[in-house]
Design goal:
The complex is a heterodimer of chains A (288) and B (191).
Chain A: E1 12-18, H1 25-31, E2 39-45, E3 58-63, H2 69-85, E4 91-96, H3 104-121, E5 131-135, H4 139-158, H5 173-177, H6 191-198, H7 202-209, H8 213-218, H9 226-236, H10 244-251, H11 263-268, H12 272-284
Parallel strand pairs in A: 1-2, 1-3, 3-4, 4-5
Helix pairs in contact in A: 6-7, 6-9, 9-12
Chain B: H1 5-12, E1 18-29, E2 56-60, H2 63-74, E3 84-98, H3 102-108, H4 127-138, E4 143-147, H5 149-153, E5 159-164, E6 173-176, E7 185-187
Parallel strand pairs in B: 3-4
Antiparallel strand pairs in B: 1-3, 2-5, 3-6, 4-5, 6-7
Helix pairs in contact in B: 1-4
Classes of the chains: A alpha/beta (288), B alpha+beta (191).
């Protein structure tokens, strides 16, 4: 049952796992001694991770003083696989739980060794920025870390993407050639050329991008504009198969796929990815 | 009826699967796609039956339906009579969720009209996207057969199929047909 307090993005999923063959109930209870509100928790040893159909938001790998280096190494490909399959970004946290009775120096040496091994494997992960080390000092520390990650995950729902998502057409030369005229010599997209291709004034485009006309006029190919202009480049790829005047006409015709808004209406606000996706589907023939 | 992921997943477990062994079609505007385009490329881009991040491919069940889908996109652009590239996927799928079957819709408590609603501007996952996500996450089915909206708008009957990459397991297969007996691309992927 979904907790209504978490309607923004629903319950988050936390997978607790370990390099060991079996996950110890006692260790699990020590790690998560109380209910974590807003989290659906699952505990699994490492070996069935490749068969998991649901990708967790966070995978917590429990390590201890008895963790074997070879077991950890064997587990890394499954963790990489989980992060690669994640529909959204997925965190992997290695939590080092040393026995309190262990000598502090021994504990530090063990942690350092594990940390170095993880650092060494970092480049295998598709999103190494979201692989973290955590020295677990009790449930409060864990709750704080998870709360911080929840806040970051929720942000992904609120903040529009900074760049268009990848497309199968990113590698198709003929498509890329169709937007070469939008770029200047250094490869940057030019607001001036984009305004012309879309049949709008530079002032109009500046307004859509939240800039002044003067700023756009001064540096139409500024680095700071490139992310936003990339969405327009995606849309302009349609010119690979229709002439420029047909493209400008298409931009201004209410489109049933877009709830009868025109593509230009959506480009003017924050729904640029929607139009870019539509163009992508048209050029790749994906039935909708 | 308000649906959520959990209720859809539970309902999926009660729905029978159908088997499909056929040749699916997709039409693409004629472009120089290079020497070895990946015909089964998945970007995880959202579509009618998948939210962002779910890897799948869409095909029309028949050549005629693929044509209707294509025409719907390009209506009014003057591209209608220009050359197209057609490619085919030969599929053997043992576990397909058939949303053209009224009994299945009833079991899922879904109305046929809900399957044809617009999805592109939705602020959260639509019912059809939740259905696809449920299929992908449970692995109970490897594909969904669903009514083509473009065909329905043209007063024709027709179906499309979305195939979920991570749910295609042997003996299921998707083979993109090429000029020789060897397929151009194949699912399931081998490690």
């Amino acid at each position: 049952m979904v907790d209504i307090k978490f309607t923004l993005s629903g319950m988050k999923t936390l997978l607790i796992t370990t390099p060991e063959v079996k996950i110890k109930a006692k260790a699990f209870r020590e790690l998560v001694p109380e209910k974590l509100e807003g989290w659906r928790i699952e505990a699994l040893p490492s070996w069935p991770l490749d068969r998991k159909a649901t990708i967790p938001d966070v995978t917590l790998v429990q390590l201890g003083d008895d963790t074997q280096s070879a077991d950890l190494k064997a587990m890394i490909p499954w963790l990489v696989h989980l992060q690669a399959k994640a529909p959204r970004r997925s965190y992997v946290i290695f939590s080092f739980n040393a026995e309190t009775k262990t000598n502090v120096r021994v504990e530090e040496a063990l942690f350092r060794e594990v940390a170095e091994q993880i650092n060494h494997e970092l480049s295998s992960f598709p999103d190494p920025d979201r692989v973290n080390l955590f020295f677990n000092q009790g449930s409060f520390a864990l709750k704080t870390v998870l709360s911080h990650i929840r806040a970051k995950l929720d942000l992904e729902y609120k903040v529009p993407p900074q760049l268009p998502r990848t497309s199968p057409l990113d590698r198709v030369k003929e498509v890329l050639r169709s937007t070469e005229d939008l770029r200047v010599a250094n490869g940057n997209l030019s607001a001036e050329s984009i305004a012309k291709a879309f049949g709008v004034s530079l002032s109009q485009l500046a307004d859509w991008l939240g800039r002044t006309r003067q700023a756009l006029n001064k540096t139409p190919d500024a680095d700071s504009l490139q992310n936003q202009l990339s969405f327009f480049e995606r849309v302009a790829r349609l010119r690979a198969v229709i002439p420029s005047d047909g493209f400008q006409k298409w931009l201004r015709i209410p489109n049933p796929e877009l709830d009868d808004k025109t593509p230009l209406d959506l480009l003017a606000n924050t729904e640029r990815q929607v139009v870019a996706d539509l163009v992508d589907d048209m050029l790749t023939g994906a039935p909708a | 009826m308000k649906h959520d992921l959990a209720s859809l997943k539970a309902a999926l477990a009660t729905v029978p699967a159908v088997k499909i062994k056929t040749k699916l079609t997709r039409l693409v505007p004629q472009l120089d796609l290079g020497t070895s385009p990946d015909w089964l490329f998945t970007s995880g881009k959202p579509n009618r039956y998948n939210p962002a991040g779910v890897n799948c491919v869409y095909f029309a069940e028949l050549r005629e339906v693929a044509q209707v889908e294509y025409d719907a996109y390009w209506k009014g652009t003057g591209r209608g009579n220009q050359p197209v590239t057609t490619y085919y996927g030969e599929v053997v799928l043992d576990r397909v969720l058939d949303l053209t079957d009224l009994t299945t819709l009833k079991a899922l408590k879904v109305e046929a009209k809900d399957l044809l609603k617009n999805w592109r501007r939705a602020k959260k996952s639509t019912l059809t996207q939740l259905l696809g996500q449920s299929v992908n996450e449970t692995g109970l089915f490897s594909a969904i057969r669903y009514p083509s909206k473009a065909a329905a708008l043209s007063s024709k009957a027709g179906a499309n199929i979305v195939i979920f990459r991570d749910c295609v397991r042997a003996p299921d297969s998707v083979r993109i047909l090429g000029p020789t007996n060897a397929p151009l691309h194949v699912w399931p992927l081998t490690r």
